[in-house]
Amino acid sequence: GWMMTNIRMEVCVDSVESAVNAERGGASRIELCSGLMEGGITPSSGLLQVVKQYVRIPVFAMIRPRGGDFLYSDSEIEVMKADIKMAKANGADGTVFGVLTTDGRVNTEVCMDLIAESRPLSVTFHRAFDMVHDPTTVLECLISMGFERVLTSGCDSTALEGLPIIKRLVEQAKQRIIVVPGGGITERNVQRILEGSGAQEFHCSARSSRDSSMKFRNSSVSMGVSLSAPEYSVKVADICRLRTMISVAKDSV
Questions:
Q1: What single string gives the DSSP state of each residue in 6-65?
Q2: What are the pLDDT digits (tens) for 17-43?
Q3: How far apart are CA 36 and CA 48, in angstroms?
Q4: Of the candidates 46, 98, 26, which has an alpha carbon nearest to the alpha carbon of residue 69?
Q5: Which keywords fit this entry according to its UniProt record (predicted)?
Q6: Quick one: 8-213+224-251 is in which CATH superfamily?
Q7: Which of 88, 80, 89 is nearest to 112 (CA)?
Q8: What number of other Cβ atoms are within 10 A of residue 235's Cβ?
Q9: What pLDDT was estimated at residue 219?
Q10: Mind giving me the DSSP string for 227-241?
């Protein structure tokens, strides 16, 4: 359809290799973070610098000091402000963050401070949105604060399960904020998600595992907690999967 060129794919990556693959695979934008295993935290300045040298598409930096919830202490908020300065200094094109209050609302005061710190960069409110008490009210709140985008799985474990809510949010937004579905989006469900929601952007990681190149291996030591990823497996954004997703997505409109 006429809208097909407007479909945009944001790919979340935590390595230079994945960033390069994302661009080659047809991504419109990169969300850069470290540690995708825990849902993504702030990337190092070194990672951001090198990614910016390797890709031309916009790079949005995740600003999230730790995994877990989105209720932050004063010192964690100081870290977030310092990280936004770092991201701007290292060429980030946007920032991605979310801060909540104990009762599941947006902490508007802190978010306004972080938006001010981010200017003139684009700001995205991330999936902290999926942890709020009342998504309809929160969406209006984000619009009035000046967030350009909100990333959401429709307050469910995946975007497919949250599809009815994503559709409602897209309708409510009326172009005032870009609602970006994300969470378990693959080449198999992207068409259903875009058709069912009316969204024009989507967020994915489209990673495949490849075996580590290590020949010597010590199987009796693990670097993380026991439920972490296998030590000798590397997850990287997959060019073929991304290209497939883009072509399937463009057929859906």
A1: G-EEEEEESSHHHHHHHHHHT-SEEEE-B-GGGT-BPPPHHHHHHHHHH--S-EEEE--S
A2: 999 999 999 999 999 999 888 889 999
A3: 15
A4: 98
A5: Copper, Cytoplasm, Metal-binding, Nucleus
A6: Copper homeostasis (CutC) domain (3.20.20.380)
A7: 80
A8: 16
A9: 76
A10: TS--TTEEEEE-HHH
**Spans of all domains in the chain:** 8-213+224-251
No. of helices (H) and no. of strands (E), the chain: 8, 10
The answer to whether the beta carbons of residues 83 and 114 sit under 8 Å apart is no
What pairs with residue 204 in β-bridges? 11
Question: Quick one: which H or E segment has residue 83?
Answer: helix 74-89
Other CB atoms closer than 10 Å to residue 95's CB: what's the count? 25
What span, in angstroms and rounded, lies between the C-alpha atoms of 106 and 67?
Answer: 18
Among residues 135, 133, 200, the alpha carbon closest in space to that of 172 is found at 135
Query: At how many degrees (to 10) do helices 190-197 and 163-173 cross?
Result: 40
Handedness of CA 22, 27, 28, 31 (dihedral sign): negative
Residue in the structure block whose two tokens are 């409510």: 172
